[in-house]
């Protein structure tokens, strides 16, 4: 029996104004980050000037996971903070800019990461509305795109998700210890999407596997038949990939990777 999900259905509730006219309310922000990313990136074909994509991860052609071959961390300064310069393209609305800036600022509340507007720094992230949602993993050198496409990626959870990629983190379900915590059901995964479930020799910063990480995909991610592609173990019914913002473990990992004072 196929499971019908609301993810790709209509995501608006009809409301009524004082004049009795119906208006639409966007309820997309209530979805998990996993659902938002899959909706935004489904069927996306990068333009010729864009990088090769593995789902929402932009690939450095020299190495699919550049953090394993060189130091991809952003530098830490003598005052204990990690400063990451950014620029935002001028094609966003004022509302979208507010969402993006709120996502950038959210890291300063709980980590030593400080995103700040670029002046003349060589290495920086360039936030643009390109083909879907994507980011490189870690610092690449010079300008590196973080794509937050208008109409699909300008939500708090997706902003945080892509920025965490830019800080050097992969998806939770690719963790080196994931087989102790989730069962991947390979026969239910779309054939051309199975790479999303390949394990990586990740640095887990001594933190537990987190079903509620903003980097964890939901249980039906890339399903070809409506059945789960991931099942939590030992509790098969545990919520999986439902995050709408960074979890406490996400915050701890960032702080440990960048040696922030927790």
Dominant shape: globular
Strand content: 15-25%
**Radius of gyration in whole Å, from Cα?**
19 Å
Q: How many helices in DSSP terms?
A: 4
Number of separate strands: 11
* Unreliable residue stretches: 1-19, 21-25, 61-66
Cross-sheet strand order for the largest sheet: 6-5-7-9-8
Largest beta sheet, briefly? 5 strands, mixed
Task: Indicate the structural class.
Answer: alpha/beta
Oligomer: single chain
Helix percent band:
10-25%
Cα end-to-end separation? 47 Å
- Give the overall average pLDDT: 85
In short:
17% of the residues lie in helices and 18% in strands. It contains 4 helices and 11 strands; from the N terminus they run ββαβββαββββαββα.
Any overview of this molecule?
The protein is α/β, with parallel strands linked by helices. It has 4 helices and 11 strands. The strands form 4 sheets. It has a 5-stranded mixed beta sheet. A two-stranded antiparallel ribbon has the order 1-2. The chain has a two-stranded antiparallel sheet with strand order 3-4. The longest helix is centred in the middle third of the chain and has 13 residues, at 94-106.
Which structural traits does this protein have?
17% helix; 4 helices; alpha/beta; 5-stranded mixed sheet; 262 residues; 18% strand; two-stranded antiparallel sheet; disordered N terminus
Question: How would the blueprint of this fold be written?
Answer:
Blueprint: E1 12-16, E2 22-26, H1 33-41, E3 52-54, E4 57-59, E5 82-88, H2 94-106, E6 113-117, E7 124-128, E8 133-135, E9 143-148, H3 156-167, E10 182-184, E11 230-232, H4 248-257
Parallel strand pairs: 5-6, 5-7, 7-9
Antiparallel strand pairs: 1-2, 3-4, 8-9, 10-11
Helix pairs in contact: 2-3
